[in-house]
């Protein structure tokens, strides 16, 4: 289940962030993207439908069926990605990016929602980490693959950057069609396990947190869940964590170019930071599950992100700036599954999980909007305002983390005196 879902999300990440690669490969010149804020607008517009449509998508997921919905999303955005190879102007590219955001909107929250229903609380981060590792690792090598595709430049009169969109879009469509036969559903609806095997899965989840059987999703419940301040705290943490990740995804090849490397070297040097991030994700996920601690390891990775941002933003040496990309990418990428696990561990019921997952990940979309607007073309090559904004957001993350940890610790102490947490007598928060 995890390798397949990870591979599908890797394709989503590649299709979402290959804009910077295509720009480096010649799209900037052909579509005149350096004029004004055109590139920022093209990057930004993706996140508007991506953010707005995540919540309704998760609400209807169970009714539509996981495999049906995810296949539709994948094939649709693959078609849009392919079409981006034929846009005649930057305005057409804006339209395609908006459609790409609309079709990708329901994908990631659905994946996280489904994965968290299969595992017990202290198994989740390793699973989310493994799923995200596949995506990060595959996505990290996308610049190298993109470089290979640029060698097709001029074939059939098509520019090098256009081949990136055309080939990667075609691959996405193919994967989307094939994946329909293998995408898993919720545990209680799955068709690939026997009845006895399904019973084992449901019993493990029931013993762990008591929500193996989905509850009915009503308007009243949605409003009740939306009133929980903890969900919004998790969402703000996720927003803060995604900003460096998106900034690196969109601007890494451009930043490397500003350090003096050629187009070829900039594309090839984009991959190693993602290899480091993959190792960092699994190391911290293993520690987090082993010691049943979330906040401590999120804080450590946030510190790593901060150090990386300082190095990349304020050092003069290209080597130190490049090393900073390793740290910032590894720290922010590791915080993403960490925060999702932190939230999932402290959430009970399918209805609340559907709402919270969608809201939290939609704040990641807002993080994408923020990243694409604070890293402005006029600030090239150092993007100092964007670096300052990213540093500030990491400090906000640490403050929120301290607040939730203090609250959870106090509530767990009260639970020992007979008080119920989240309506469950045996439930305690994961710190």
From TrEMBL:
Annotated localization: Membrane
Recorded topology in the membrane: Multi-pass membrane protein
Keywords tagged on the record: Membrane, Transmembrane, Transmembrane helix, Transport
Q: Per the record's keyword annotation, is Membrane included, yes or no?
A: yes
Which SUPFAM superfamilies does this chain map to? MFS general substrate transporter
Report the protein name in the record: MFS general substrate transporter
What Gene Ontology cellular-component terms does the record carry?
membrane
**One MF term from GO for this chain?**
transmembrane transporter activity
Residue span, Major facilitator superfamily (MFS) profile domain: 1-407
Q: Which residues cross the membrane?
A: 38-55, 67-87, 99-119, 131-154, 160-183, 231-255, 267-288, 295-314, 320-342, 354-375, 387-408
Q: What is its main location?
A: membrane
């Amino acid at each position: 289940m995890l390798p397949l879902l990870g591979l599908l999300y890797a394709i989503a990440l590649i299709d979402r962030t290959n804009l910077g690669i295509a720009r480096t490969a010649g799209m900037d010149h052909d579509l005149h993207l350096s004029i004004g804020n055109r590139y920022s607008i093209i990057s930004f517009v993706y996140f508007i439908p991506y953010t707005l449509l995540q919540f309704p998508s998760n609400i209807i997921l169970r009714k539509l069926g996981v495999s049906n919905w995810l296949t539709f999303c994948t094939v649709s955005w693959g078609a849009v990605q392919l079409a981006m190879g034929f846009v005649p102007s930057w305005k057409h590219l804006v339209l395609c990016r908006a459609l790409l955001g609309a079709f990708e909107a329901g994908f990631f929250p659905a994946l996280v929602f489904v994965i968290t229903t299969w595992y017990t609380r202290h198994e989740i981060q390793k699973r989310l980490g493994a799923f995200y590792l596949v995506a990060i690792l595959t996505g990290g090598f996308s610049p190298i693959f993109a470089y290979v595709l640029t060698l097709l430049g001029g074939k059939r009169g098509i520019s090098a950057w256009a081949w990136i969109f055309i080939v990667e879009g075609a691959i996405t469509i193919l994967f989307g069609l094939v994946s329909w036969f293998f995408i898993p559903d919720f545990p209680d609806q799955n068709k690939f396990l026997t009845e006895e095997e399904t019973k084992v899965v449901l019993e493990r989840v029931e013993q762990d947190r008591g929500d193996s059987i989905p509850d009915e999703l009503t308007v009243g419940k949605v409003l009740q869940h939306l009133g929980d301040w903890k969900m919004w705290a998790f969402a703000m943490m996720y927003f803060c964590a995604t900003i460096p990740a998106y900034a690196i995804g969109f601007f890494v090849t451009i930043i490397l170019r500003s350090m003096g490397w050629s187009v070829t070297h900039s594309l090839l040097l984009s991959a190693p930071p993602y290899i480091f991030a993959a190792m960092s994700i699994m190391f911290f996920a293993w520690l987090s599950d082993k010691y049943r601690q979330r906040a401590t390891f999120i804080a450590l990775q946030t510190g790593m992100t901060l150090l990386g941002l300082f190095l990349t933003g304020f050092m003069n040496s290209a080597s130190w700036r490049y090393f900073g990309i390793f740290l910032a990418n590894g720290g922010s990428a590791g915080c993403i599954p960490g925060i999702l696990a932190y939230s999932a561990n402290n959430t009970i019921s399918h209805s609340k999980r559907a709402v919270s997952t969608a809201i939290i990940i939609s704040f990641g979309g807002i993080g994408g909007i923020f990243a694409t607007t604070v890293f402005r073309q006029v600030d090239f090559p150092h993007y100092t305002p964007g670096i300052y904004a990213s540093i500030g957001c990491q400090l906000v993350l640490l403050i929120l983390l301290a607040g939730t940890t203090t609250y959870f610790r106090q509530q767990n102490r009260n639970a020992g005196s007979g008080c119920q947490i989240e309506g469950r007598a045996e439930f305690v928060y994961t710190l």
